[in-house]
Structures are given as C-alpha cells and as structure tokens.
Amino acid sequence: MRNLFGNTIIGDCHPELPRGLEYHRGEWGMGSASIEEAWLLYGLITSCKPQLVIETGTETGWTTAWIAQALTDAAYGRLITVEKDQKKAQAASERIAGMELASRVEVVCDDSLKAIASLSDYSVDFAFLDTLIHLRLLELQALRTKLKPGAIVVIHDTSPQHPMAGNTKLLDELQKNCKSILHINSPRGITILQPNLPDKWVRSERSCIPSLRFIFPTWFPGPRKIKRWFRQAT
Ligand SMILES: C[S@@+](CC[C@H](N)C(=O)[O-])C[C@H]1O[C@@H](n2cnc3c(N)ncnc32)[C@H](O)[C@@H]1O
User: Fold this and answer.
1) Residue in 132, 135, 158 to alter for ligand 1 test, most ligand atoms within 8 A of Cβ
2) Structural domain that includes position 19
3) Does residue 139 form part of some domain?
4) pLDDT of 85
5) Is residue 218 part of a domain?
6) Which pLDDT band holds residue 127 (cuts at 50, 70, 90)?
7) Phi, psi of 124 (to 5 degrees)
8) Among 27, 36, 80, 84, which is best to mutate for testing ligand 1, by the most ligand atoms less than 8 A from CB?
9) What CATH number did the domain enclosing 144 receive?
10) In a domain, 202, yes or no
C-alpha cells in the first residue's frame, strides 16, 4: 500500500511483532498507526470535511501529517493535535512545518484531558484518540459535550488481540457506551463512533463544490429545461 509520504510498505503489523521497525523504517514512532489505518483516516476526513479535528497523541506526527494532508486536499478545516511530551511536540511541529502542512495544524503541548476541556462546547467535528490506551475512555467522556451532532470519533488500538487494549476490555466498554459504532478488527484495531447522533440528518454545509443553484438563482433553467426548449423550438 502506498505511503503518502514516500516509502512503499505493504501490510499492517501487530505492535509486538518485530516488523514495527521495518514498517515505519525507523522514521516514525513504533506506536504509529499503520498505513492502512492512516489511509482510513485520510478517506474519512476527505469525505466528511470536518471544520475542527482534534487528535490526542501526536508523537512523531505521523497520523498528524495524514490528517493535515487530508484537510489540505479537501481544502477545508483545521487540526489541533495534543502531545504531553514537550520534546515530541516540538519535533512534530517542526516536521509538520517541513512538510508544508503547518497552515492547518496547531500542535499543543498539554495533557489531552486538559486540552479537550479547554475546547468550546459543540465545536469538534472529528476526533482521533491515540494517547495511552487507558486514557481513551476518559478522553471520549471529556469530548461528549464538545462534539457537534454527527461528529465522528476514531479510537486506535481497540482490538481484543492487542496486548494492551485486550486487557482493558476497551472495545467492550465502547460497545456498551455507544449506539453508533463500527469496529475494524485490524491487528491493532480501530473503532469509529458517532457518540452524539443528531435527531435527524440535515443537508451538510460542508461541500467544497458550491451548488449551481447557489450560483444561479432557482429560476435559472437547468440543462434539461434548456434541452426541452431547444426540442420545442426545432
Ligand atoms: C501511540 S503514540 C501516538 C502515535 C501517533 N498518533 C501516530 O500514530 O503517529 C502516543 C503518544 O501520546 C502521548 N501521550 C501520552 N499521554 C498523554 C496525555 N495525557 N496527553 C497528551 N499526550 C499524551 C505520548 O507521549 C505519545 O507520544
């Protein structure tokens, strides 16, 4: 599978397998999401065009770069990524700047729960939770009042076969607590939630392509009407 940022490496790997180093070629963190998972994030973000994304656990900036690239390609939205370790936050920030993705990214050096608490209510469209496994549920809880209706939360490392997540029964807890859940049983596991479902889905305002009806008033004839006029006239 193609790596958006250069290397071509195929296949997911389990965090405990030695392929971890080979997989990211030592460039990115050992705990980094797989390329498949990175593509999944990329696809979700380019599809839903979130205005505000929050990521917890920046580390080297690998998933940060994928999210930022998706926002750049969608020409929409911004990312706040939170990393507790000051050195990592600084290095990731420089890396993102070097990749020319900084205009859509703010790297915040803070504790994830504090950073989430400081967000405005109902401001978040998309969250990716990837700090320490035992923090995932607390972060999700802290996010509840921060999520817009229909917002998507992606949680990494949820698979029951994950050596750390399995013990915390993270997936069981997520299934118990959320009505709208899609679990992808990749080696590490990735779970997609919509904790704050809207009562009714309404038309999205987040399209990049403005409707022609927005440019032209409603009385402006569409191509079918023009064709009909042409047929009648000839
Ligand atoms: C698994 S790594 C993140 C990997 C990254 N998302 C990727 O895929 O490239 C987890 C990171 O979370 C950071 N972290 C741990 N506890 C944290 C907390 N309470 N708040 C913010 N960051 C935290 C760690 O320093 C570490 O860099």
Assistant:
1) 132
2) 8-197
3) yes
4) 98
5) no
6) very high
7) -95, 130
8) 84
9) 3.40.50.150
10) no
Greatest alpha-carbon pair distance for the chain in Å reads: 75
| Neighbouring C-alpha atoms within 13 Å toward the C-beta of 207 | 7
Q: Could you tell which of 13, 56, 111, 131 is best to mutate to test the pocket of ligand 1, judged by most ligand atoms within 8 Å of the CB? A: 131
Q: Is the CB of 31 under 6 A from ligand 1?
A: yes
**pLDDT tens, residue by residue, 150-189:** 999 999 999 888 877 776 789 999 999 898 999 998 888 8
- 16 band by pLDDT with thresholds 50, 70 and 90: low
Task: Name the closest-CA residue to atom 19, ligand 1.
Answer: 111
Q: Which residue has the tokens 């939770």?
A: 129
Per the domain annotation, does 185 fall within a domain?
A: yes
Listing DSSP states for 132-152 in one string gives: -GGGHHHHHHHHGGGEEEEEE
Reported as a single tens digit per residue, the pLDDT across 65-97 is 999 999 999 999 999 999 999 999 999 999 999
Tally of domains in the chain? 1
CA–centroid distance, residue 207 to ligand 1 (Å): 32
pTM of the model: 0.85
